[in-house]
Every structure is written in structure tokens, then in C-alpha cells.
Amino acid sequence: MRRTALLASAALLTGLLPLAAAHPAAADDPAPVPVDRFEGEVPFASQPADGIFTWGSDSDDPPTLRFADRADAPEGAKVLSGTYDISGYGGFTHDFAATEPAHDWSAHKGIRFWWDGQDNGRKTAFEIKDGGANGEASELWTTSFTDDFTGWKQIEIPFSDFVYRTDYQPVGGIDHVLGLTRMWGYAVTLPVGAPGRFAMDDVELYGKADQTLRASVSTDAAVYPVREGSTATVQVTLATTGSAPTDDPVTVAYETTGGTAEAGKDYQAVSGTLTFPAGTASGTTRTIKVPTLKDRSAESAETIPVKLTVTGAKAPAETPQVVIDAHGLPYLDSRLPVRKRVADLLSRMSLAEKVGQMTQAERGAVGTGGDVTAYDLGSLLSGGGSTPTPNTAAAWAQMIDSFQLRAQATRYQIPLIYGVDAVHGHNNLAGATIMPHNIGIGATRDPQLAEKTGAVTAAEVRATGIPWDFAPCLCVSRDERWGRSYESFGEDPALVQSMETVIQGLQGRADGRDLKDDDKVLATAKHFVGDGGTAYGSSTTGTYTVDQGVTTVTRQQLEAIHLAPFRTAVDRGIGTVMPSYSSLDIVGDGQGPVKMHARTDMITGVLKGQMGFQGFVISDWNAMDQLPGDYATHVRTAVDAGVDMMMVPYGYKDFTASLTDQVEAGGVSERRIDDAVSRILTQKFELGLFEHPYADTGGASKIGSTAHRAVARQAAAESQVLLKNSGGVLPLKKSEKVYVAGSDADDLGNQTGGWTITWQGQSGTHTTGTTILQGMRNAGGDVTYSQDASAPTSGYDVGVVVVGETPYAEGVGDVGNGNDLTLTPADQAAVDKVCAAMKCAVLIVSGRPQLIGDRLGEIDALVASWLPGTEGDGVADVLYGRKGFTGRLPVTWPRSETQLPINVGDASYDPQYPYGWGLTTLTRAPKGGEATLKALGTAAGAAERAGADAAGRKLVGEARLLVQARIGQSITAAVAKPFADADHLLLTGRYAAAVQKLTQAYRAA
């Protein structure tokens, strides 16, 4: 139902429709056809029934509706009346019954209705639903009207005024053509920001469709790049609604005129008329050929607009352009060093072109992409859930290629760099391989596996035409109340550093030589710096409690905890870095909390200066808007701080204008602009985009492939952390009768978490994968499933209860922002019922630890499953013993929320389970006691001195198994602190000291 909400910019709400009393009908007009009379003939109901229903971004946003008696009703006795107070988005829809045929509106000119004006000057969006399987799987076409009148007025909207919704579309029956022959109803999106009321009556179809509405002329592209001396071919196609032949002739007069190319010198001028006679079949195509001329001079790209004048049909939305490719200029020579190519190109660019390169817009804001050319944009992105329709690999590639084509119409044909948040696989793409979130990858303690997951992600992302990934997140999560904590590899900077092999998986070798390959992408280290250390209650963003808050640290803490992972990333050749929304407060520096996007000392001084970062800095989504001061100050502050490219999704026009003004006024130096643009161009050259700007889809067949899913399955298996296993309940035996319950056992959406298909993710099945329940069945288990444990529990050998969180992302998931760390009452009841009836294993599917201590006594086996991704088979692999449990806690598991924040190394440390805890199956602990530990410590010291890291890690692992066997579930503060410290020492290569700490824990047990 959210698909009817207006999620995009106000650009979709443009234009004031004619507001007038009903016009007299022409003699040959068909009679109006009622859609809604609001006399009660259409009930308040939703799909699949015929009905009117409300929707909104949260529980407060849907409007209230009623059929009200009105003496002044324009038609009948009743009207649809309602009140609203919307903070996000909200409105109502009339969907025709999905069980009945769609409606045919093609005989009519448009749709009209009566509206009771309040003269509030606010815009209301009105959209219609075309094609697809039903009203909730149709194309959305939108327009708007302004309430600047009082009392009843009839609003007439010709179908020609509707434009295709580019910001959000459902999947199904999509062709980007308003066909009008399969219509499913309409929707109204009400204004936000202030309470209001409305009344509406008599929705009906009016007028006779003329051919200019039913017939349209289009070209096969908006831009036609050709090499100098070649001939461009422009295909002109006539299409009609419902594919009916034309009633009247259509003519298209054409001529080459204007542009930057010179007729007779650069091209041969052409003109003429294309004729489509009456009776022409829909889809008929004619061609226009534009020959270009060759000379010997090196030149930038030159444009040749082909003006089309159409009679008898709707003309194309824009004038197509032939572009003679730039040629002969040094920056185009791939044999030259990148630095020389950058210097040559930079020397030729105007200020407007440079500012354009520093600008990143959202795909939904640029429509079909004309502004890519008009504003010389350097980059586009898809925010979470911003996808083409249908959401397929082919559609992604086609969409991005269409935007790249627009960049070819700019003077120097600088390619776009397109970016996405592929934070655990190509998570915006339906059917892609979804990895465990980073917290699960951290639990694997397997750097080679982390690199493999990055490689799979890169291959799937690049195969859809995307060369840039806003990942990995190198935050060191210090408080699991943070809604982004699952984006962190863990609470220990040493663990985060060890997992940065993912950068090589994404980018290839550190020198950047692999970036041009068709299975590598530019990576982004985020969020610089300290986003994982924000204090609870310090956020000033809406209802967030932790996210985008303040990190208060000493300089020593900053360096040791938060900066260390970024130094490693720079050493690994990271291509881009994204600053954090959060503020940094360094104790003793006298500045107080300062937003990271304004910290010149950190971005320019530390990152680019001390660390020697050579890539470019990309801002977070509209992050500069959180800086103090007016808009011009935001721009100047962020750019001068060292942000090279600004993510201004829907504000790119304001940004380019303001930055240009700042440079011309001297507020931002040209030297700073040149540094930023040089950095951006360098990465574009390294990616090979100048030579190959379009998608190489050769690897598309591997997206979601068995081989790729095998990596995700391995990651899911290795991420499982066995916290408790009394009586050897796990692994399960295939001969056992297993009772499975819990909200997350058979829910792929809960299993994949946030940042999956949409920004926040969602429960249910929204992509391709295997749930944990299905994985258990695939493993050959004798399984009975009852989600709420309502089925009888007698006669089973063991129960498996899979519980946990529902998806969230960023500050929306902060504890205190409608979230906590406890299981839902339904999950608690399922645990209690199953564990009281039989031996039980409880799996917690979550992005962070859940408070389970009050139920530990009744639980025989406890598993931290994290958010394992699409491959539930991997979870089943360890449950049924195909693989042993090997995962270890990447964060401390607290006893209570009052302990938070709690982290390895704290002076006071008494958790439920310490950092690094993780029992094993299929591997026996070594025999013996302190004597064995002493021997292991001696051997570990020798391995450390010899640089034999693999041997050292193995020896510490054996000591850990021995100590865990001794501790059992008797985890006291005296045991937990040295045990956690040992895992940190292990990660830093101090193997002897790690065994010493484990020995200390052994003695305290």
C-alpha cells in the first residue's frame, strides 16, 4: 500500500492544473463515465476487493475518511470527507477489484472530480494506476493540483498531463507507456506538515480521446554518440494506445539545427518529413540519417540537435541530439599515465563542469536523465530501495547505460560514476546473493572468507553496470543500542582491521590495477570517523537516540579505536571515504562537538594529510544540511573541510549554483576545486570508465548463482555463534523429531535484515533465498513447524525456536526509538512453551545481542545467528553437524541494558557472554589443565617469534577450547575479562600473551 505514497522530490508536484467549472461537452463526446460517486457504492476495503483504503508512513499518517451527507454535494447526497495530519506521507486509494477485468479508459480525454477547496495554497498529488496484475502491481502516473480556491470546483485532468513516476514503482506489467486500456484506479497523496481537511465528489471520465493523446512519436534514444566521420541513425517510432492503427495521418518534420557543431564543417545538414498514413500500425518505425564530416583537428564533443515537429500525435518529450565524439585530446589516450590524463582534462574544464563533477544526485531526481547533461553531473546513486522496474539485473544495466548515454552529450564526455549501498551483497537487487551483515562476518573471524564475500558482491554489482559501492562500514560499534551496530564487524578495532580484506575482495589489489576489471568496484570506507562511538541520548536527529550523535573521546582513544581501521583501509588502497553524520568531541581540543562533515582537521589534516589518502571523499546523504549556518555556509564549510563530492540527492541544482557562487566570490578557492575534481577524475580513469562507460553484463548470469550462494552459505555457517550447549543438544540428528517454532524460523526478510531490497528491509519474502526452516528441511531433518508454538508439543525429541528482531536500518533502529533489546512477547511465549516441553535450542536472529538471561535456565542450547542473509542452508549446516560451530562473539553479550555500553578492555566487565566467546561442535577440546595451557603458551610464544601466524592462532584456539570447557556457563567477571582480553591479543598477533590471559580465566573459573 505504500506504493501510492509520494516518496520523491517536489519536482513531481509541479504545475497547476486548470481549475474551472465543467466545460460544455462537444457534440461527439461520449457520455461521462462514473468512477466514484461516494454514495456508498464502493466500500472502504482493500485488495483484492473493489474498495477505498488509506495508507501512510506510520500509524498517525493515514487520513480519516467517511462518507458524509452534504446538502451542497455536487452529485448525489454524499461526498468523501476526511481529515489529516501527516508528517511523512499519507493518502488514500481506490483500487478496482483484482478479481475482475481492468477498466478501459482509452476512449476518454481525462479524469475529473469535484474538490472542496480550503484555499491553503498546498499541492495535492493525484495519480492513476495503469497496467500490471492489479492496483498494487501497476504503473503509477502522477500529477498534482494546488488548493488555492474556496468551495467546490471541478478539476479536470487530461491524461496527457500525467507523468510516469520515476521515484517508486511496483513490479509488474511495466512498459512506461500510459496505455489506459488496463486501469486499476487512482490515488490521492495529501499535503504534509499541517493538519487539514478535504472533501471530494463525483470522480468520472470525461471527453473524447483525440489522436494526439492516443498516438505518440518517440525516438529510440535521446543521445546518439558517433565517431567523427560516421553517420548517426535516429529511429522515429509511432505508437498508439492499445496498439490500434492510427485514425488520421501523422507527419514528422525534421531538421538539424543549433547545437555546437557547425553544419557543412562538422556534419551534413539534413531536413525532411516522415509520413505515417492513416491506418499505420502501432510500432512502425522510420529513420533519419545524419552524416558527420571528418577533419584532422582534435576536438571536444559537438552536438547536433534534430528538431522534430509532429502533427497528429504527441511529440517526443525532448529533442534528440547527435553527438560527435571528442577525439584526439590527450586525456582520451589510455596509453598515458592517469595523472597526465587528469591534468590535461582538468586544464580544459570550465568551473561549471568542475562543479558538476563534484555533484551526486539520486536517480529518482533526474527522471530520464536530461539534467545529467544540463548540469554536467559527475555521479548518480540509488538510495536504499531506489530501483528500476522491474528490479532485474538487465533493468539495472539498461537504466545506468541510459544515464551514461546522457553524459556522452557533455563537452568532454566525462562518464558518470554510479554508486549504491551494497553493504551485504548487491542488496538492492532482487535475486542477488545476500551475505550476512558485517556483524556476522566479524563473528566468522575468517579474513579470507570476508574477502570472498567482497569479491562476490563486487562481481554482482559490476555486472549490473555499477562501478562504485558505498561499503565497507569500518565503524567500531561500542554500544549495541545503535541501530547501525550490525553494519560493524565488531567492537574491537583489531577485529575490524582483520576483516578489511573485504576491500581487496571489492577492489582487487591495493594499487588499483584491478579496478577496471568487470568484477571489481570502487569501495568506500565509512563513516569517518567515530560513528560507532556515539553516546546514547546524544543524537539530535528526529527521534534517533544514538545514530548521528556525538562521540566524545581523548585523542588516544580516537587513534586507537576509531582511526585505526581507516589507516588500514588507506594502506589497502581504498578508493573513497565517506564522513559520518555524527559529531566528534575530542577532549581538550576546545572545539566541543563538531559535525564530521565540517572537520577540516580530520578530513584534510588526518585522512588526506597524515594518512596520505589519495582517493576522494564523498559526503553522506544530504549530510551538509546538518551543519550550522545558512545553505551557502553549509556548502563552503563542507567543501573546505575536504569533502570532494557532495551527495545532494534532490538538491543538486541548489548545490551547483551555490558552490559556483562561492568560488566566484572567493569563498572556496579554485585550488580546492581542482584538488577535488582531480581526485574524482583519477578514480574514473582507474575504473576504465572513459574507455568502457557502459555496463559489461558478461557476469550477469552469475548473479545469485550456485557458486556465489555457496560463499554466502559458508559465511552464514561460520557466523553462527554457539553460546550454550548443555547436554550436547547440538548438532541435531536427522533421526530426531524436531519441533520448530518462532517468528524468524521461516521469514527471509527478518533473516536478511535492513538494507535488503529497501532501505529499512521488511519481513516476509521479498527476494530469492532459503529460510532457516527450509534449510533444516533441505538438510533432511524430520521437522514440524508451528510459528507460534500453538501446535501440540508432545512426541518430539528436541525443539528449535528461532526468534529475534524485525528489520530496521540506521537510527530508525536505535534502542529507545521504538526498539529495545528484548524478545517480543510472542517470541518469549514460544521459547517458554517449547523449552518447557522438550530439550530446546534457541536461535536469535538479530543485528545485535538480545537480553536472554532470564530464560537461560530453561534453554539447553543458545545460538547467536545474527542476520545470516539469504542462505538459511548455512545455518542448517551447523545445526545438523554438516559443519561444526566455529563462530565467536564479535561484540560483548550483556546481561542487562544498564550495562551498556560494555566492551572488551573495560575496567568493569561482567557480561552474560564475553567478547570472543563461542563453543564448538565436531572439535574436541584438548585434555589437561594448567600444564597443557603452559605448553600451549610456550609453543605460542615460539610461533609468535617465528612469525608463524597460522600456527600461533591454532595454538591459542586450542587453549580457548580447553578454557571454555572448564568455564561452562559459570561466567563471572573474573573469568570474562581475561577471556575477552585474550581474543583481542590474538587478533593483534600476541599469541603468548593471549594464552596467558586464557590461563588467568581458567584459574578464575
Characterization of this structure:
The chain is α/β, with parallel strands linked by helices and 1005 residues long. 26% of the residues lie in helices and 21% in strands. A hairpin with an 8-residue loop joins strand 3 (64-69) and strand 4. The longest helix has 19 residues, at 949-967. It is globular. The two termini are 56 Å apart. Mean pLDDT is 94; it is low at 1-22. Keywords: Calcium, Glycosidase, Hydrolase, Repeat, Signal. Belongs to the glycosyl hydrolase 3 family. This is beta-glucosidase.
Brief write-up:
By secondary structure, the protein is an alpha/beta fold. The chain has 23 helices and 37 strands. Strands 1, 3, 4, 6, 9 and 12 form a 6-stranded antiparallel sheet that branches.
